[in-house]
Amino acid sequence: MELNVKTLEGKDAGKVSLSDEIFGLDPREDILARMVRWQLANKRQGTHKTKTRAEVSRTGAKMYKQKGTGRARHHSARAPQFRGGGKAHGPVVRSHAHDLPKKVRALALRHALSAKAKAEQLIIVDQFVAADAKTKLLVGSFEALGLNNALLIGGAELDSNFKLAASNIPNIDVLPIQGINVYDILRRGKLVLTKAAVEALEERFK
């Protein structure tokens, strides 16, 4: 598979050959769904917690005598059915993480890249370099490339001016190649890779 390489100004900068084993797969939604679920589960803090009847601060004395009142039999006001009582079967602090094989995670990334290529939402740029950290100039460049909702993946080191300028633009995410992940690829409309990022991906999946 061959794609045209663009500059940030929207000009042609040659062509690049993409590996079919990375960008030419038939995307499988089940694998992508498993990967997104795994990522989102790992992001969950799991700090939700409610107090049980053993933890609420309230008297444990019997509310009223057992017989003779005509009312139901009750003991502690800490019981879940009373206002101010403990919560029955409430959430507890726990980890939501679960296992996903490393090979499945690697396969999911290739399917996500292939999905963008198949949908013609993959753009290759020669490099991410900005002379000045000016957001206005970068917005003009992105408009020329048709980017209003995109994930930009650069090489191992990102240009500091480019990163600063892009950080103020809504719906635009910039990551080094080490940070590439399935969830961020799928949540944005277009995927923009530099030539260095393409080379790193092909080296990674050799």
UniProtKB/TrEMBL annotation:
Protein name, as recorded: Large ribosomal subunit protein uL4
Lineage per the UniProt record: Bacteria, Pseudomonadati, Pseudomonadota, Alphaproteobacteria, Hyphomicrobiales
Keywords per UniProt: Ribonucleoprotein, Ribosomal protein, RNA-binding, rRNA-binding
Species for this entry: Peteryoungia desertarenae
Keyword Nucleus: no
Subunit structure: Part of the 50S ribosomal subunit.
Pfam families xref list: Ribosomal_L4
Region (Disordered): 63-93
Gene that this sequence comes from: rplD
Family that this chain belongs to: Belongs to the universal ribosomal protein uL4 family.
